[in-house]
Sequence to fold (334 residues):
Amino acid sequence: MKTEFTAVVPVAGAGTRLRPHTHTYPKVLLTVGNKPIIGHIIDELSAAGIKKICLVTGYLGGKIKEYVSRSYKNLKVSYVEQPEPKGLGHAIWLTRRYVTGPVIVMLGDTIISADLAKFLNSKDDCIAVKKVADPRRFGVVEIRNGYIKSMVEKPEKPPSNLAIVGIYSFKNSAKLYAVLERLVESGRTTKGEIQLTDALSLMLRGGHKLKPVAIDGWYDCGKPETLLETNRYILDRKNFTAKAKNSVIIPPVYISRTAKVENSIVGPYASIGDGAKINSSIISDSIVNENALIINMNLSGSLVGPSAAVIGRKDQLNVGENSEIRFDKSGCGL
Ligand code: UTP
Fold:
């Protein structure tokens, strides 16, 4: 297995679709399964033998840096600041002074279950693709003779149903950076952003070969409903042991060892983060982030943000960081 690859992971976006959670917390630090999204991505890269990672940070980047440097002391991680989210192509271009040799790019808002060796060991430059029902929301590729013929970002009329899903590998990063440089210098944007797909299209037009690698496991973390879906997927795959006092646990469930769960029914598909406190509640199909407090609630299909408090009424909620929601007996917010 090749280990000299550097992984570039762009995580500078504001995560607007996950508001209110992302008002004060970066998307990649939200828990899914047993750890933050970025933890799953870095673990996957590390398991594939990658030791050098370059994170492109921007929005709330300090919090990301703090988590990654605390949790991954064995990896060489560099941080590049993208002051404004000008697009994926721009984010990757900013890493040009930090990367030499082969590079693998993995997006920061998807968890992928794929054999990364297929990318790292291929003689070709590769792009992960997946058949999707509605390709109009994605970059879409057209294939000829086993290689990508063309690609287009979020097309009205997709040339195929094969979407680009967030892993790109290049044997020679210098070629990628040269094309990105041309794009940035020309000031060309599509839908207001400097797009990676535009750079890749330029490469294709210049005769560069890009191989599509089909992957099955692709889990989006960009919206509340897909985050919960990804949470269910992770809990289904891993058999976490969970402890709680005077409670019923219905697997699959993840309860952090530092969480305190009492007099409650937890699961199926509940993730309870570090330091969270749950009492007299029923929680299923939900993610409770670190240090949240939940008392006397019946939650399903809910996301509870870090340090949020939810006390005293049964309902479905989507609560951001440091918020506190209380209801009196008549059901009115206090
Ligand atoms: P997205 O566009 O899906 O993420 O970019 P976002 O902007 O954070 O989320 P929304 O759309 O506002 O809800 C995919 C990945 O690329 C990164 C994002 O952080 C995310 O991990 N990205 C995107 C950058 O780092 N810089 C950019 O300029 C654009």
The chain has two domains: 6-220, 239-326. The chain has seven helices and 27 strands. Residues 10-17, 27, 56, 82, 85-88, 90-91, 107-109, 222 surround uridine 5'-triphosphate (CB under 6 Å). Helices lie at 37-47, 61-71, 88-93, 117-120, 173-186, 196-205, 224-237.
